[in-house]
Amino acid sequence: MSPLRLLNRVGVYGFLGAMVFLSVFPFLWMVVGMTNTTGDIILGHLSLGHAFLDNTAKFFVQANAPLIFWNSAKISLFGTALTLIVSSFAGYGFEIFRSPTRDSLYAGLLFTIMIPFAVLMIPLFMIMGKLGLINTHIAIILPTVASGFVIFYFRQATKAFPSELRDAARVDGLKEWQIFLYIYIPTMRSTYAAAFIIVFMATWNNYLWPLVVLQTNEMKTITLVISSLASAYYPDYGVVMVGALLATLPTLVVFFTMQRQFVQGMLGSIK
Amino acid sequence: MSDLKLVDVSKSFGAVEILKKVNLDVKAREFIVFVGPSGCGKSTLLRLIAGLEEITSGELIIGGERMNDVDPSHRGLAMVFQSYALYPHMTVEENMGFALKFAGMPKAEIRERVLAAARILNLEPLLARKPKALSGGQRQRVAIGRAIVRQPKVFLFDEPLSNLDAELRVHMRIEIAKLHRRLRVTTIYVTHDQVEAMTLADRIVVLRAGVVEQVGSPLDLYDDPANLFVAGFIGSPKMNLLPAVAVITAAGRTALRLPDLGDTLVVLPDGTPRLDEGRAVTVGIRPEQFSANGSAAFDLTIDIVEHLGGTTFLYARKDAGTAIVVEMKEGRTHKPGDAITVRFDPAALYLFDADGSRIRAGV
Ligand SMILES: Nc1ncnc2c1ncn2[C@@H]1O[C@H](COP(=O)(O)OP(=O)(O)OP(=O)(O)O)[C@@H](O)[C@H]1O
Ligand SMILES: [Mg+2]
Predict the structure, then answer these.
(1) Which residue lies with its CA nearest to atom 20 of ligand 1?
(2) Which ligand 1 atom sits closest to the C-alpha of B36?
(3) CB neighbours (10 Å) of residue A214?
(4) CATH code at A105?
(5) What percentage of chain B carries pLDDT values higher than 90?
(6) Which of A148, A154, B75, B355 has the most CB atoms at less than 10 Å from its CB?
């Protein structure tokens, strides 16, 4: 290898190494941090400490962890399931059925993706107030169910769904909704897996809207609780790190168990 | 096993009329093949029959019943698609039994029927597999099996073999012929492939731009095409079609002047209709109709030689004229650039009018 190419290699690997470090370091610090006391963390201790059990116990006392966890899980699972059903149905419909207004309707839908949430937040809050849904979990689930992005994603994926499969199903006696249920959903499994990961992570990590809508402690989600622990007058960083780890685990589990389907789904599910 | 009738069937997509007043009478147990150039409406016609598209006007009658508004699954037909259209998440057995299960048939009976069909098609070892784990030919057999299981009154095939390689295509073609002989179910089959059409069909329907050009047995269409289009479409290599001008000879007989063959005159035999002097017609002659003892003879130069072993096709021309395909049984010594004399019998010529319609002898 010529010296120039060697230098090039070193540069490339150096750069990649730095990037890896940047993305992995917060996780490392989280793990290290939850075993240390706040004092050690502030001093910049980068080795494992002995305060893990202590921190964990404190977290469970301060945060009512099981309830908070259950709230987050309930919202994320129900929300994701509903979003996938409703939005995939819509995306499928947009792709399969022709109508004179289809394209303008769809353009309008795509436009909604571009509106920042901050713009919607106040009107949405007023709507939820009118519906009497403030401080309920339904208020968090409802606005995401018909998601412009997920509809778009499913419409794109549906382009790869062979029309002859629909024809075969119709000859076999299936009605449109049965085709969707018995043929489309099982065929597009990896598309659903990919969408599940994306939507689940987004709902699990959702912060701003729950912060606005959820008002009592027993309704709150884990992201809200961690943030309130971290912004206390004397934040106990070791405890925050325990919370952060618990908040990260479900998304990690979801991602690693569905990783293969995720990649397939992003590539297109039918080969 | 039903007869099937199309009466003035038309189909439009928006303002575009794709099929124009198609009439067809399919007899029970008959094997009908639709052929025609790409985009002529073969698939659309098949989909109208299947109920996958709505008929714009006209009537579809299956087994004496008007079927225009009947749901596809209640028309008593089964369809085999070009892409096989097997449900990817189901095993072969589930694929084949799906329609029956959906119709509420008892499990034991479904299994019996699936096994019977699997036996016919040699699918027994594959029943537990998913379509992904099958070869193209196997998938095609499963698709056919799925159709058989339903015991339909009419089979519909839309280019079922076009995704297979040449060898498998021949094999499956023979399988389908055997199957039809065994089950005797009325069949409508769409294809691009001349050989499939000629070998499978009881009758061929030639479509062009949504219009039925001719219906007839394969050899009828070959020997006696109704018009220029059918003459050019049926047969491979194609019939040679040459422009010609009618001339009346001094003896008062009709002759043709063929510019592509060096303006030689070909005197037509008795019984051919008299053509007015100067009338422009098209002359057709099949590659195998050139023979050693015809009365008309031309000197041509060979352009290209295709040796197929048993036969040889020569592509020859006179000066800058159109290339003429000549089939030779004994042509192995010919080389490009050679001069050759071809002969044919003027009585064997096909004559077509300027509008493409056939000018028949004795009319
Ligand atoms: N859903 C549709 N909407 C509009 N036009 C259509 C539709 N389906 C088919 N067509 C048009 O109808 C015409 C006939 O199509 P069809 O698929 O029947 O042709 P085909 O004879 O089967 O051709 P090929 O041999 O290529 O399969 C084509 O011009 C096609 O563009
Ligand atoms: Mg077609």
Answers:
(1) B39
(2) 21
(3) 21
(4) 1.10.3720.10
(5) 73
(6) A154
